[in-house]
Design brief:
32% helix, single chain, 8-stranded mixed β-sheet, 19% strand, 308 residues
Length: 308
């Protein structure tokens, strides 16, 4: 059975927002510590034994439920049951909203989640923005990270999430923000509106997972679009602040061979500089590795946790 932790009302203007200050060492060359406001993350979980927990981290506009079926299948396949968690990042799902959407802030949230629940060093599996967050957590909070699987995301510096392409995440976010209230009253009407802006049905369904239509009250997005959308065009969102840092634990970069986001020739040197034990593997997919090839993705996760 799945259990829910930290189901908090952070998804609207009237929601409760749990925020606290956490002093975290950045392991920077200067040795300076930074203080970041962290939020208590919502999660879905499957209980397990004493082995290192696996924590799944979704990408932009995603939610904890994105990995629910993966977790359930992993639990069925493994004799030595591991505790498994899938979290909602800040400004996503049922986790609280906050004005800082950076991966460094999200990494501090993940570190706080691990420490608060006394999970010990954990296996992080992150896709896309979740992969970037997992990298930041491993680099800045290595004591709480056992090993790392990054799914179709590189540590490339100086890049922004929104590259301005048709169907890109910037267009997707702006389409959600532009939806009129009448179109939000049913998934069918919302999809019809989005179809005028976004051609691909899979992308529209991905967007619509975030549309909440309550029996009482107004429909709304469970995303803090006011904070997320402006951040997408800035390299600061993805900045790992990794100068002088490295993570020495077991690491796999699992790329989609039909996705441009991880190119071993281009990104390999930086990957191995920051993650000396890194192995780069591929599946025959685009960016949505775990959705396009779920069985093969689960096999890769099993291989990783068993090897490490």
């Amino acid at each position: 059975n799945f259990t829910m932790w930290h189901r908090v009302g952070g998804g609207g203007s009237g929601g409760v927002r749990h925020v606290r200050l956490l002093s975290t060492s950045t392991s920077s060359p200067s040795g300076a510590a930074t203080t970041r406001a962290t939020v208590e993350l919502n999660s879905v979980s499957i209980p397990g034994g004493a082995d290192s927990p696996i924590i799944f981290i979704h990408g932009l506009y995603g939610a904890a439920g994105n990995f629910r079926s993966v977790m359930k299948r992993l639990s069925q396949l493994t004799e030595q049951k591991r505790p498994m968690y899938s979290i909602d990042l800040r400004n996503h799902g049922a986790s609280p909203w906050n004005d800082d959407p950076s991966v460094l802030a999200m990494a501090a949230d993940v570190n706080d989640f691990i420490e608060t629940h006394e999970l010990g060093p954990s296996v992080l599996v992150g896709h896309s923005l979740g992969g970037r967050t997992a990298m930041a957590a491993a680099l800045h909070h290595p004591s709480t990270v056992d090993s790392l699987m990054v799914v179709d995301m590189s540590p490339q510096t100086g890049i922004a999430v929104d590259d301005g392409t048709d169907g890109g995440v910037g267009q997707v976010g702006r389409a959600m923000a532009a939806m009129p209230a009448d179109a939000m009253r049913s998934k069918e009407a919302a999809d019809a509106f989005l179809a005028t802006l976004i051609e691909t049905p899979m992308i529209r369904q991905w967007m619509l997972q975030n549309l909440v239509i309550p029996k009482a009250g107004e429909p709304h997005w469970r995303l803090n679009l006011d904070v997320l959308i402006p951040a997408l065009g800035s390299a600061a969102l993805l900045d790992l602040d990794a100068s002088g840092l490295s993570f020495g634990g077991p690491t796999v970069f699992l790329r989609g061979s039909r996705s441009p986001r991880v190119d071993e020739r281009v990104h390999g040197p930086l990957i191995r500089q920051l993650f000396p034990q890194a192995i780069i593997r591929s599946l025959d997919t685009g960016h949505w590795v775990h959705s396009e090839k779920p069985k093969e993705f689960i096999d890769e996760v099993l291989r990783f946790v068993n090897d490490s």
